Amino acid sequence: MTKRSHSHEHDADEHDTAEHAAVEDAAPGSAARMWDEKYSSRSRMWSGEPNPQLVAEVADLPAGEALDLGCGEGADAMWLAARGWSVTGLDVSAVALERAAAHARERGQDAAIEWVQQDLATWVPDRLFDLVTAQFLHSTQMPWQQALQLAAAAVRTGGTLLIVGHHPDGLPPWGAHHTPEKFFTAEDLARELRIEEPLWRAEVLDSRRRSAVGPDGEAVSLTDAVLRATRLAAQ
Ligand SMILES: C[S@@+](CC[C@H](N)C(=O)[O-])C[C@H]1O[C@@H](n2cnc3c(N)ncnc32)[C@H](O)[C@@H]1O
Question: Based on the structure, what is the number of domains in the chain?
Fold first, then answer.
C-alpha cells in the first residue's frame, strides 16, 4: 500500500447499475467524505464483476502496468491482476478501498495491486502506465474534463487510455435529475482530451447500449460512452 492507500473487499450483486449514475449532487464537504458516506450506507455498492467494456477492450492487450482511476471496490483492478497486470487502484474513498483490499487479500492478489487513497483534485501523476482505465468516474465535485485529462497524462508512449462513462442520452432513470453536462460522449472525450495525431491514435469511439439491473432489481437499458486510444508520443 502507498502512503494513503488501503486494501479491502468487494462483491455486489448488480454492477453497472444505479450507483454509477447516482453521482453526488454537489454535496458540501470533501469528495472523500461524500464518497465514504455513500459507500458506508451499503455493505457493498457494486457487483464485484468487472465492467463489461473493460473486459471487451482490454482482454487482448498484453499485461503490463495498469492504473484504475476511481477504482471503487476494486473489481476491475482484481480482474486485471488476475490477467497478469500489475495494478494501481486509486480512489478518494478509504471505505471503498478497504473493501477492495480485503477482497484482494482473500483472492491472494495482495502483491499485484496497490491501493492508493487520493483525491484527483490534488493528484498529479508521478509515473506512467501501460494502461489507464477510468470507468464511470463521474463526479460533480470535479469537472470530468479535469479528472480525465489526468488519466490521459498518466499513459506512457505505446500505452492505452480507456475511458467509459454514462452517455448523456442513455442515462439510467434514477439518474434523470443529473444534467447532461456532467456526462460525455466518446466524441466529447476525444475533443476535450485532444485525442488526435500526432500524440494519440483513437482506436474506439463508441456508444454501446447494454442491459443492466436497477437498484430494485428491475431490468434497465443503459448506454456507455467508450473511448480507447493509444498514445503515440509523449506530451
Ligand atoms: C461511480 S463510481 C465507479 C467505481 C468503479 N470504477 C466501478 O465502475 O465500479 C465512481 C468512483 O469514483 C471515485 N471518485 C469520485 N470522485 C473522485 C475524486 N475526486 N478522486 C478520486 N476518486 C474519486 C468514487 O469514490 C467512486 O469510487
Answer: 1
Please state, in angstroms and rounded to a whole number, the distance separating the CA atoms of residues 124 and 149.
11
Q: How far apart are CA 97 and CA 36, in angstroms?
A: 10
Is 174 contained in some domain? Answer: yes
Question: Best of 35, 57, 149 to mutate for ligand 1, by most ligand atoms within 8 A of CB?
Answer: 35
For residue 68, which atom of ligand 1 is closest to its CA? 6
Q: For residue 10, report the distance from its CA to the centre of ligand 1, in Å.
A: 14
* 137 CA to centre of ligand 1 in angstroms: 5
The pick from 13, 30, 91, 118 for probing ligand 1's pocket by mutation, whose C-beta has the most ligand atoms within 8 angstroms, reads 91
| Tens of pLDDT, residues 107-157 | 999 999 999 999 999 999 999 999 999 999 987 688 999 999 999 999 999
Residue 160 is assigned to a structural domain of this protein: yes
pLDDT in tens, 147-200: 999 999 999 999 999 999 999 887 877 765 677 778 999 999 999 999 999 999
Nearest ligand 1 atom to the CA of 142 is: 19
Task: Kindly report the pTM of this predicted structure.
Answer: 0.89
- For the CA atoms of 38, 24, 94, 6, the dihedral, rounded to the nearest 10 degrees, stands at 120
Flag whether 11 is in a domain: no
Q: Whose CA is nearest to atom 24 of ligand 1?
A: 70
Q: Where are the alpha helices (DSSP H) in 22-133?
A: 31-40, 52-58, 75-82, 94-106
